[in-house]
Amino acid sequence: MNAPLPYDQLRLRHLAGEIITNVRELAHAGWTPATSSNFSRRLDDRHCAITVSGRDKGKLTEADIMVVDFDGKAVGSDNRPSAETLLHTQLYARFPEVGCVLHTHSRTQTVASRLYAPQGHIRFEGYELQKAFHGNTTHEGAMDVPVFPNTQDMPELAAWVEAKLDEQPMWGYLIDGHGLYAWGRDMAEARRHLEAFEFLLGCELELRTLKP
Ligand SMILES: CSC[C@@H](O)[C@@H](O)C(=O)COP(=O)(O)O
Ligand SMILES: [Zn+2]
Questions:
Q1: Within a domain: 134
Q2: What is the number of structural domains in the chain?
Q3: In which domain, by residue range, is 134 found?
Q4: Whose CA is nearest to atom 1 of ligand 1?
Q5: In this protein, which residues make up the domain named Class II aldolase/adducin N-terminal (predicted)?
Q6: Ligand 1 binding pocket includes 53 (Cβ within 6 Å)
């Protein structure tokens, strides 16, 4: 007889359904072109549910969601987890309160990442929408969103993220020429953060064309 799976399968089905519904909406907005992007939800203190690598994220079914442990190792599945699994699991391992990680490749995110890569961050200042980020209660004050160089070396990228997390509070970051990572305590909060990033990045890009 097979050993029982070391996670709650009912919770997995519930979270898979939540990922599928939410990601379909993000794909509909054009934020997941050409099989890009990846998504996950915390299952418990050792596992998360994450999208299988290379799938069309606008057409996810339950078969496209699998379980990995926080070392990124597949649990109970022969599928290959997202190529960027480590960028998800590092957040779950570090922050017990993080429950959801969303990674998208919208045009706005990608263009902003290219423009701001040389300075290594993009600053949001004076926007009411800064209050969309958990813990921010005012538009006063500045928020720096890091922009990391892109690399296919996930341990290297994860190490840069880890070092930045030691320096400042963060709910997301950009990767140059690539896209955005955003997270939150649950799906609703991670989506709110993702949408706030998208809106604020769009504002900064538009301002650059209006007052270059
Ligand atoms: C289709 S290119 C995009 C990928 O290289 C990657 O950046 C991405 O977001 C999706 O990778 P995946 O392995 O499907 O999770
Ligand atoms: Zn990506």
A1: yes
A2: 1
A3: 9-210
A4: 36
A5: 17-205
A6: yes
